[in-house]
Amino acid sequence: MEREALFRALERSLMEDLRPSIALEALFAGAVPPEFEPLRRMKTTAQSPVHHPEGNVWNHTMLVVDEAAKRRAESKDPAALMWAALLHDVGKPDTTRVRKGKITSYGHETLGAELARRFLQCFSADQDLIGRVCALIRYHMQVLFVGKGMPFADVNGMRENADLEEVALLGLCDRMGRLNADAEQEAENIRIFLERCGR
């Protein structure tokens, strides 16, 4: 499939399908144009089995995308939510390391925002949408950082550059996009995050 057609098929699936993962698995089953390699690389990027029993980054992303599709109607900005769900971990292939026997991907959200910008600019002139997608990706880890009071928390930066409720919604999809996720616990984590952000 040529690059423009593949992008449009991706867009259609993200915005219309109840389970976009079904179409995405088919679209990425074979060779893809070079512009899509950042997404394909997620299939060969391992994650911590403790935090991600579902396996590699692609498996996790498919679960997140399906979770986001269930919650599209809750979003003020469904296009940004869905693209961010697909691209939120696109920085992991380049940041994943094994440190002291543990798989980590420190800084994947910052690199991911830049990679997502480059990817989307290949196909879209909508800079406002691209900016909103990249802001969600850049701040999606804040749900964890703020909720746990970690030193990487940046509430002020997030409030200036992203919509807190949309970050929370993506964060919930991210947390639910793993095997055996505890829906009650994750909802409580989001409540704590919003409370600590002053909402």
Automatic annotation (TrEMBL):
Position of the signal peptide: none
One Pfam family in the UniProt entry? HD
Instruction: Give the coiled coil ranges.
Output: none
- Please list the residue ranges annotated as the HD/PDEase domain: 53-188
> Known SUPFAM superfamilies for this protein?
HD-domain/PDEase-like (SSF109604)
Which terms are listed as keywords in the entry? Answer: Nucleotide-binding
Write the protein's name. Answer: HDIG domain-containing protein
| Species | Lawsonibacter hominis
